[in-house]
Structures are given as structure tokens and as C-alpha cells.
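testing teh design pipeline on a random one, pls ignore if ur not involved
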């Protein structure tokens, strides 16, 4: 977002045609966007918003950028960065504590789950969720499940592999940092793991009605649970975090 030319400083209305908030006012609202762009005069545009009493109540960024940070300081607008802005949606009730650098999304529940991708000779296992499960019926997923209380994420991953596939000798090949995905009133924090297994003989449980061993590039042909493609890419990419 650019405040110079992108926001009307007289009333706080977003003007930028490429911004999803076009036509809406930032006045008195918590403004959430990935990062700032544009001229250094944008800092003074933010200050003008304050003088006209149409500035945002707070700012949340994925990455702090000098123009926005300077404008926030000049305008005394609380600001927090290093936040995954994709997890926040328009209309959310959000609490920003800039002093402690925290953001809370009200009415949204965080759920920790593990997703394991099992690999055998270049192919990966996906499972089709049955109509007996509580969510994402008929969608394809990795070996997934909730992290239970007082349970480590790798411990949860290995437990789910045994329960859902009966593999007892899966070898951990890689793990990557957790990813967050927003769906309705839930944030799913997914802990991804890649395991290698010695065969493709799978014994699925009641949570699934089918399974398939596919090439990673074939995943696009399946209807999957949210974020499965990103998780698989993280695990299989040589440049993943």
C-alpha cells in the first residue's frame, strides 16, 4: 500500500485501484497490509491523515518498511510487524498491543495440526477424507491430525501415521517451520513433516475412503484441504525455509 496518492488524506478513503480496500475508509480502523511502497512523502501523507482526524487506529504489517514506520511514528499510530497478514480478514475484531508487539484476532480459534507427506520412490501419498469426519469431507490430504495436549508435534505426526496408514517404520526426512492458514473462524497452524516409507502398501482407517500415490505435480488435479499444496512444496523444495 502507498499512502501517497493511494489514500485520500481529507477523508481516509482508499483510492488505489489495485487495493482490495478501494472505496473504504481507514478512519478509526486497524489497517492491515503486507508492506508499504512509494515515495518518502507517504510518511507526510500519513501525518496529514492524523491532522484531519481520519488516520487508522493502528497498523499491522508483514514487514515494516521505512516510509510506513516513519509515518506511524510521526502520526503516533501504534504499529506491529512480523505478522502473517493473510490470517487477518476484513471485518475481524482485532486487538493490537504495539508496546508488546502482539496482535490478537477475536472470535478466531487457533488449531495446531500436523501434516505428514509420506514418500516412496518419488511418489507421495494423499488420502481422501471420508464422510465420517467432521471437516473437509471428500477432500484429499496428507496424513493429518490434531496435536494433543502435552504432545510434541513430531510425536503427533508419528502417532497419526500409525493410526491412519499402519506404517510403523516411517523415516523422518525433513521438517519445515509451521505454516498458518485461515479458514472461516479458524487459523490452522500446520506443522509439516516429510517421511520416507519402504512400501506403498497402505491400510487406511475410518477417516479415509481412498488413497493414491501421486507425483507431486499431479496434486493440482485433486481437490485438497486448504494449504496442502503449499505444505508439500515447502517439504519438497530445495529452497524451502
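output:
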Amino acid at each position: 500500500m502507498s499512502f501517497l496518492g493511494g489514500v485520500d488524506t481529507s477523508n481516509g478513503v482508499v483510492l488505489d485501484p489495485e487495493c482490495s480496500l478501494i472505496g473504504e475508509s481507514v478512519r478509526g480502523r486497524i489497517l492491515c497490509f503486507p508492506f508499504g511502497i512509494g515515495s518518502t512523502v507517504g510518511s507526510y501523507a500519513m501525518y496529514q491523515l492524523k491532522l484531519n482526524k481520519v488516520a487508522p487506529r493502528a497498523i499491522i504489517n508483514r514487514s515494516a518498511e521505512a516510509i510506513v514506520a516513519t509515518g506511524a511514528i510521526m502520526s503516533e499510530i501504534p504499529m506491529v510487524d512480523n505478522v502473517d497478514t493473510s490470517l487477518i480478514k476484513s471485518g475481524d475484531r482485532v486487538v493490537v498491543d504495539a508496546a508488546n508487539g502482539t496482535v490478537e484476532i477475536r472470535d478466531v480459534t487457533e488449531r495446531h495440526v500436523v501434516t505428514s507427506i509420506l514418500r516412496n520412490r518419488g511418489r507421495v501419498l494423499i488420502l481422501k477424507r471420508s464422510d465420517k469426519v467432521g471437516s473437509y469431507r471428500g477432500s484429499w490430504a496428507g496424513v493429518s491430525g490434531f496435536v494433543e495436549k502435552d504432545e510434541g508435534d513430531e510425536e503427533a505426526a508419528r502417532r497419526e501415521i500409525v493410526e491412519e496408514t499402519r506404517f510403523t517404520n516411517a523415516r523422518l526426512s525433513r521438517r519445515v517451520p509451521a505454516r498458518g492458514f485461515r479458514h472461516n473462524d479458524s487459523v490452522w497452524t500446520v506443522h509439516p513433516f516429510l517421511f520416507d516409507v519402504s512400501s506403498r502398501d497402505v491400510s487406511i482407517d475410518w477417516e479415509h475412503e481412498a488413497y493414491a500415490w501421486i507425483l507431486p505435480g499431479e496434486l493440482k488435479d485433486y481437490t485438497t484441504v486448504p494449504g496442502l499444496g503449499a505444505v508439500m512444496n515447502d517439504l519438497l523444495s530445495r529452497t524451502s525455509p
